């Protein structure tokens, strides 16, 4: 049944199967996996060097900000997913409706903000990738494309969390 801010009653027993089947939990897990893929691709193959120069540069048009942005929002999104996942676990135990309200509003606001930031990240990475010269990419093109693709998917996963 409907209770205060999405919970029927406080203090019930924890049911893992029922918990994992909740749409917001599934969306949060998907968002965490997408964020992990984005920042792992950028950390792993997002920086390259030329054979004659050992200096590392970002694969996205030599723009360090593109790599930093993707890694930054990816790491913060992953950590936020873990935090809100833990909030989801303990949410039924919270009996104070004011606390519930603030947690729901924080989740909604953060999800909306991160939807916007993923959109910016997708546009930024796509733009920088379009300006990247083919001869500057020896390896890592697939990781760059994966980071762009999962940035795009992250927009929709964070929208689903905000609904």
From TrEMBL:
It is a multi-pass membrane protein. It is found in: Membrane. The keyword Membrane applies. The keyword Transmembrane applies. It holds the Pfam family MARVEL. The chain crosses the membrane at residues 25-48, 69-91, 103-125, 137-159. Residues 19-163 form the MARVEL domain. It comes from the Eukaryota. Its main location: membrane. InterPro entries: Marvel (IPR008253), Synaptogyrin (IPR016579). Keywords: Membrane, Transmembrane, Transmembrane helix. GO terms for cellular component: neuromuscular junction; synaptic vesicle membrane. Belongs to the synaptogyrin family. This is SNG2 protein. The lineage of its organism: Eukaryota, Metazoa, Chordata, Craniata, Vertebrata.
């Amino acid at each position: 049944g409907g209770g205060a801010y999405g919970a029927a009653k406080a203090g019930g027993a924890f049911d893992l199967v029922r918990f994992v089947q909740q749409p917001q939990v599934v969306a949060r897990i998907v968002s965490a996996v997408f964020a992990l893929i984005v920042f792992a691709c950028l950390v792993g193959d997002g920086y390259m060097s030329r054979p004659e120069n050992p200096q590392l540069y970002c694969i996205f048009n030599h723009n360090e900000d593109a790599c930093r942005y993707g890694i930054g929002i990816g790491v913060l999104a992953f950590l936020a997913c873990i935090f809100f996942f833990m909030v989801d676990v303990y949410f039924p135990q919270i009996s104070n409706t004011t606390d519930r309200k603030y947690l729901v509003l924080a989740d909604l606001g953060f999800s909306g903000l991160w939807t916007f930031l993923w959109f910016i990240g997708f546009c930024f990475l796509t733009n920088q990738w379009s300006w990247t010269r083919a001869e500057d990419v020896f390896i890592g093109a697939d990781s760059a494309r994966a980071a762009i693709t999962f940035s795009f998917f992250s927009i929709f996963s964070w929208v689903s969390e905000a609904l």
